[in-house]
Specification:
single chain, 403 residues, alpha+beta, conserved putative lor/sdh protein from methanococcus maripaludis s2 fold, Elongation Factor Tu (Ef-tu), domain 3, 4 domains, 6-stranded antiparallel β-barrel, 4-stranded antiparallel beta sheet, 6 helices, 20 strands, 35% helix
Length: 403
């Protein structure tokens, strides 16, 4: 026979009531003496307060933007204009690479460019001369053709004039081709000089951003070698009034974290102080170390007094859930059960049993429904519990209490 929904609900409530009754009888038999119950257990008054659930991790403090300033040219460093902790602005001169060889290359490239331009001028003059000569020949050919019709000149003279005109025309075409080659050479020499000037300018190492020099790995007199990789001369942090923390969070906890979550953190330099921040980014790329998978959570925080330095180690607590001014009990109370209480009575139909000492110091079970389970306390959504009730946390250690 199938029960109706109302009958099933009634049966469930009856089962809960019976379980509470049985548990109460068991508790009374074991702890029926009120004075004995008060003496054997630690209690805490139920009250309203904050329930927080958090994830703990550690990470390194970083600047919002950090730029490695290097050199694209090789040579010895002749001047160092900035030192550690120097405040710099975009365009400020930081260092100078030996400029003499690059200045010589600019001069050589400029001379080559001048020679190429002179060659173009010579070719243009040659073309002008050929064009003038061709004009005279073409005029003779025209005159000879007019005279040939009246037998004023011989056919041989006309042929010679036409041959000379054609040869000169070919010379003109060749000269024009050579002129184009000379002009292309000018473009090449111009590019070479431009590159030489660019390399000369690169000997002046300038700051690309406004910021503070946090590292300067090279010294005046050292030789920079930039053929295979760009050497780092300075590391500049753009703005240390705001910092990032790259926290490594275990894969088991990453699902609870959301962008915008509140963060509390501390550093070893200021162990008695707590700083605040928010989750700015959750990076998808995982890091696997010795079989442990972690994800990088980027925390953004304010650092107006500049006390937090890059690469400090921060211990981070990310608040993943928070309830303010709610009825709550210590988590320890959820774990307590009298030794003789039936195991199946611990949780029925989403209800949890807590144990309290009533006004007569008798231990009684109370059925409640839980909300957010925090790090130290758990929210009570509803149930047979009210502020001021003395919830049982744990049994007292007779040896400890007697001392």
């Amino acid at each position: 026979m199938r029960l109706s929904e109302r009958q099933r609900k009634f049966a469930g409530m009856a089962a809960i009531a019976f379980a509470l009754f049985v548990t109460a009888i068991v508790a009374w038999r074991q702890f029926g003496d009120p004075a004995n119950a008060e003496r054997l257990f630690h209690t805490r008054a139920v009250g309203l307060g904050v329930v927080e659930r958090s994830v703990t991790a550690s990470g390194a403090v970083k600047a919002l933007v950090t730029v490695d300033v290097g050199s694209q040219v090789s040579g010895p460093i002749t001047e160092m204009k900035a030192d550690f902790n120097s405040a710099v602005k975009q365009g400020d001169l930081l260092a100078v690479i030996d400029r003499a060889p690059f200045e010589a290359k600019v001069q050589a490239a400029s001379a080559n460019l001048a020679i190429a331009k002179a060659e173009v001028a010579r070719r243009e003059a040659a073309i002008a001369r050929i064009q003038k000569q061709l004009g005279l020949l073409d005029r003779d050919v025209g005159r000879y053709r007019a005279l040939a019709s009246s037998a004023g000149v011989s056919r041989q003279q006309l042929d010679q004039a036409e041959t000379q005109s054609g040869a000169t025309r070919h010379d003109l075409a060749a000269a024009q081709a050579e002129l184009e080659t000379a002009k292309a050479t000018v473009v090449l020499r111009q590019a070479e000089r431009d590159q030489a000037e660019i390399n000369l300018a690169r000997t002046l190492i300038k700051s690309p951003i406004n910021g503070v020099v946090i590292d300067r790995p090279m010294q005046r007199g050292q030789t920079v070698t930039a053929e295979y990789q760009t050497p780092v001369l300075f590391q500049i942090a753009q703005d240390l009034s705001q910092i990032l923390i790259l926290a490594q969070v275990d894969e088991a906890d990453i699902g609870a974290i959301r962008t915008g979550d509140e963060v509390k953190f501390s550093v070893e330099a200021f162990p008695d102080e707590t700083f605040s921040g928010v989750v700015d980014q959750i990076r998808l790329a995982a890091t696997k170390t010795s079989g442990v998978v972690t994800y990088t959570v980027v925390v953004r925080a304010q650092n107006p007094d500049m006390r937090l330095f890059p690469d400090m180690t921060a211990t981070v607590r990310i608040v993943t859930a928070r309830r303010n001014d709610v009825l709550n009990v210590p988590n320890e109370a959820l774990r307590f059960r009298p030794e003789t209480a039936p195991a199946e009575d611990a949780n029925r139909s989403g209800q949890t049993l807590l144990w309290i000492l009533d006004a007569g110091n008798s231990m009684r079970p109370r059925s409640v429904r839980l909300g957010v389970r925090g790090d130290a306390t758990t929210e009570i959504l509803d149930g047979d519990l009210k502020p001021g009730d003395a919830v049982v946390l744990r049994a007292k250690d007779a040896r400890t209490e007697s001392k």
